[in-house]
Every structure is written in C-alpha cells, then in structure tokens.
From TrEMBL:
Residue span, ABC transporter domain: 6-237
Family per similarity comment: Belongs to the ABC transporter superfamily.
Name of a matching Pfam family: ABC_tran
A Gene Ontology molecular function term of the record: ATP binding
Protein name, per record: ABC transporter ATP-binding protein
Presence of the UniProt keyword Nucleotide-binding in the record: yes
Species of provenance: Paenibacillus lentus
Organism domain of life: Bacteria
Length: 340
C-alpha cells in the first residue's frame, strides 16, 4: 500500500467571516494523480496555498511529506513543485534561459542545470522552442514550460492550479497526457485543481468534488456516482406487456433491484397499467437497481410469457455529476448531499 504523502484533516479557512474551505479532510497517496474539482470560488486555490505554506489555516492540520507547511514552508517548497494558474516568465529570455535560472535558484549544480533544462524541454515537447523568447510563447507553450519549470528541481509532488485553463481542446488533451506520462515514469504524485471535470477526470486516479469549501465526495468516477446517486445508481426502463402482481414481485426479488414501479400516462400503478387507453396491454416499468440486472429482468419477463418491447439502461455518471454539482453546484451542496 502506497504511503500517504498529503494528509489534510479538518482544514478550515475563512475570509471576512466566509468559509472558503470548510472542514476539509483528504489523503493523497504517493504516485497518485488526484483531481480537486469544483466550480469557480469553490476553495481550490485557497487549499493549495495552505498546502504550500503560503496561507495559514484557521483550523485543522496539514501534513505534506511528513512536514507541516505552516511551520516548515521552505523544506516543503524544496520538495513540492507548484504551477500557478498563470505562470510568469522573463519574457525577454528564452525558454531554456528561464529554466536554467529556476534551476540555479533551486541550487541545481550549474553543469547539471543546462542538461536537465534541455531534457525537460524535450520531455514537454518544447525542444524546438528552446531558444525562442517566452514572450512569443502561446498559452499552451507557457503551460508546458511551466511544467518543465516545476520539474527542474526534481520534486516529489507537483501541485497544478488549473493547468488547462485557456488552452484549446487539443492542447489540453496533450498537456494532460503529458502530466499522466510524467507521473507514471517518475512516480510523481500530482494534485491538480480544475473546474473542467470532463477533461481532467480522464487522467485522475481519484477526484474530489469541492463545492463552496466542502468536499462533497471523493473517489473514482464509478464510486463517486454510487456515492452521489445512492438513491438509484442505475435506472432501467422496461416496456413490456401486461404485468400481474406475481410477476412484479418476481422482478422486485431479483438481486440488486431496489424498486420496480409500473408507470402509465399520468397514473402510477398496476391497475392503470392494465387499463391504459393510450397503449392497451403495455406497461412501462421503472426499475431502480444497484447493479446491472437487466438480463435477469428480461429473462424473468419472457419466461413468464409476457412480451418484452424494450429495455433501456441509464447509469448515472459523469454527466449527471457535472450537471448536479458543477452547473448548479451552489444550490446542491446545501441539502443532504454531503457524502464524505
Ligand atoms: N485573499 C482573499 N481574500 C478574500 N476572499 C478570498 C481570498 N481568496 C479567496 N477568497 C474567497 O474564497 C473563496 C474561495 O476562493 P478560491 O480562489 O480558493 O476558489 P477556487 O476554487 O480556486 O476558484 P477559482 O478557480 O475561481 O480561483 C471565494 O469565495 C473567494 O472569493
């Protein structure tokens, strides 16, 4: 089991009485890519600043590589690379010169600095632009250079704040793939923040959904949807012939089925199903289940000599998570959806 390299317990930070980060607890393991995802203003940057010792928590504890960033910011800075959302370079110097300068500032021996800088420029796909002034770099190129700049001091953890912001979709995919491969090759732990759930989740081992300073849920996408849509992780719509109470009970007894409700027109219920004027003899059944048991449902219906006209599965996933928590996130976090 990989060791925990970032351990956050009950972290809280307020600005002018408003909680930007509210009782955040989170553990990240060595070599993991963790996505801290949330809409604007969720508290991602505030959390990152506290992890780096650049801002002091009101309450709670943080441990980064065995260090307390508030008390030991310099050793943390040495071992943790940070890419802010808008990285600054000396615009009148080349990419190579900027990297060598960062290497020097981080006590990388002079002889090694240039070699490492060249290697990193190659790794991030900027070899061709090594001698070009960074003032002429595109946003995507600056982010790549930023990644090289973060890596030049050979950190154990890299923290990237909105790394894909302002990059076109192709550039974004390339940058994310690069982060993934760098992490795999070098065993790097990566914490990245983003409000672009769809893009970023593709490279994350786990994500945490952060809304209004609170972590609503964390895990991979499958366990997230299970946690956030615990009421019905999977919905199966069945269109079949008339159902009797006995068959309905058999369907309800299938392992994984939580409920099975016939729905016809405006009415809900078995008698409505029988008496439907719109489609006589047809029943629509909505089944909520934990697992995909659609084959068993189909078999049960057919074995009972009832016609099966259609069966549709709908799994709650990324789109539902996105709509519920990112587009209308502010409204949804106030209810009972706390799923930590
Ligand atoms: N220095 C500050 N002074 C006052 N309020 C702040 C400060 N920094 C952040 N906040 C507030 O704290 C909340 C969280 O902000 P934060 O920047 O951490 O969110 P975020 O998730 O990183 O969003 P974004 O992607 O927009 O930066 C917001 O309501 C913000 O206005």
């Amino acid at each position: 089991m990989a060791e925990t390299v970032i351990d956050i317990q009950s972290l809280t930070k307020s600005y002018n009485g408003v909680r930007a980060v509210d009782q955040l607890s989170l553990q990240i393991k060595c070599g993991e890519i963790f996505g801290l995802l949330g809409p604007n203003g969720a508290g991602k940057s505030t959390t990152i600043l506290m992890l780096l010792g650049l801002s002091e928590p009101d309450e709670g504890t943080i441990n980064v590589l065995g260090l307390d960033p508030t008390r030991e910011p310099i050793p943390v800075k040495r071992r943790v690379g940070y890419l802010p959302d808008d990285v600054g370079f000396y615009e009148d110097r080349t990419g190579l010169e900027n990297l060598v300068l960062t290497a020097r500032l981080n006590q990388v021996p002079e002889a090694e600095a240039k070699e490492r800088a060249y290697q990193l420029l190659e790794n991030v796909g900027l070899k061709h632009a090594a001698h070009k002034k960074t003032g002429a770099y595109s946003r995507g190129m600056r982010q790549r250079l930023g990644l090289a700049d973060v890596l030049i001091k050979a950190p154990e953890i890299i923290i990237l704040d909105e790394p894909t912001l302002g990059i076109d979709p192709k550039g974004m995919d390339e940058l994310l793939a690069l982060i993934r491969s760098l992490s795999e090759e070098q065993g790097l732990t990566v914490l990245l923040s983003s409000h672009q759930l769809h893009q970023v989740q593709q490279i994350c081992d786990r994500v945490g959904l952060f809304v209004r300073g609170r972590l609503l849920a964390q895990g991979d996408i499958t366990s997230l949807s299970r946690e956030l849509f615990a009421d019905d992780p999977l919905q199966i719509t069945v269109d079949c012939g008339p159902l009797n109470e006995g068959l309905l009970e058999r369907i309800r007894a299938i392992p994984g089925v939580r409920h099975a409700d016939p729905v016809i027109g405006n009415g809900v219920g078995l008698s409505d199903a029988y008496n439907s004027m719109e489609s006589p003899g047809r029943t629509r059944l909505i089944v909520g289940s934990d697992t995909d048991c659609s084959d068993l449902i189909a078999r049960t219906i057919i074995e009972n000599d009832v016609s099966l006209f259609g069966l549709q599965r709908r799994q709650y996933g990324l789109d539902e998570i996105y709509h519920r928590y990112f587009e209308g996130g502010e409204q949804h976090d106030q209810g009972s959806s706390q799923a930590e």
